[in-house]
Amino acid sequence: AAIYIPFFTVKLISPDEIGVVEDMRSGRVVSIYTRRVNFVWQGALSAEEEWPTQKSTSLVQILRHERGHILPADRLIEYLWPDLPVEKAQNNLWVTVSQARRTLQPHLQKRGGSDFIQRSAEGYSFTPLEDTWLDVDAFRRAAQAARSASGWAARLNELEAARNLYTGDYLEEEPYEEWALAPREALREEYLALLADLAEAYA
């Protein structure tokens, strides 16, 4: 099963594109967009309204953004419910985690272990499957390959590949989310540097 997770893309996936993605990745497809999270399970698109709340979408975005790291519950609460009393916010977090897990895995048994959202004594984390494809990582790999390429043609191909992977600012429909600001700016700077390299390659 493969998971396709675009960070940059801002448009909703179309029925035609579902087929294209499945041809490329085969199997299960998960598409996480800027302010919406859409899932394609074996060709069936899960609409945004099927997510129980906006908070469950935001929770997945935050955990996915911090993939590989454990986020303490109090930090998630600070991001999602900064103005609520601690007890109320903690209860909201438990409910939202449960909602997100069951949306990611509709047939998950009650109290069953999630393949995606893990909990430990330190907090919560998002665990991608081994064959998860992330466009941010692919963009950075292509940019690095371009810097390491020998020969004009090879470098130009890698630069074009990286440029095609950057389809807009990182989570650009969430302009004020604190956790997205630094990576958005870093990726934008990487993209601008890539464009400069591309212009030089064509000169």
Protein architecture, described:
The protein has 203 residues and is an alpha+beta fold. The strands form three sheets. Strands 2-3-4 form a three-stranded antiparallel β-sheet, sandwiched between helices. A two-stranded parallel ribbon has the order 1-7. A two-stranded antiparallel sheet has the order 5-6. It starts with a strand and ends with a helix. It has helices at 15-25, 54-65, 73-80, 86-104, 135-148, 152-165, 178-202, and strands at residues 3-5, 29-32, 37-41, 44-46, 117-120, 123-126, 132-134. It is elongated, with a radius of gyration of 18 Å. α2 (54-65) crosses α4 and α3 (73-80) packs across α4. The longest helix is centred in the C-terminal third of the chain and has 25 residues, at 178-202.
What is the topology, as strand order, of the major beta sheet? Answer: 2-3-4
| Through-space gap between termini | 43 Å
Major beta-sheet overview: 3 strands, antiparallel
Shape: elongated
Work out the helicity level.
40-55%
Number of helices: 7
Supply Rg: 18 Å
Strand content: 5-15%
Q: Report the mean per-residue pLDDT as an integer.
A: 75
Low-confidence stretches: 1-6, 8-49
The arrangement of helices and strands along the chain is EHEEEHHHEEEHHH
Structural class: alpha+beta
In total, the number of strands is 7
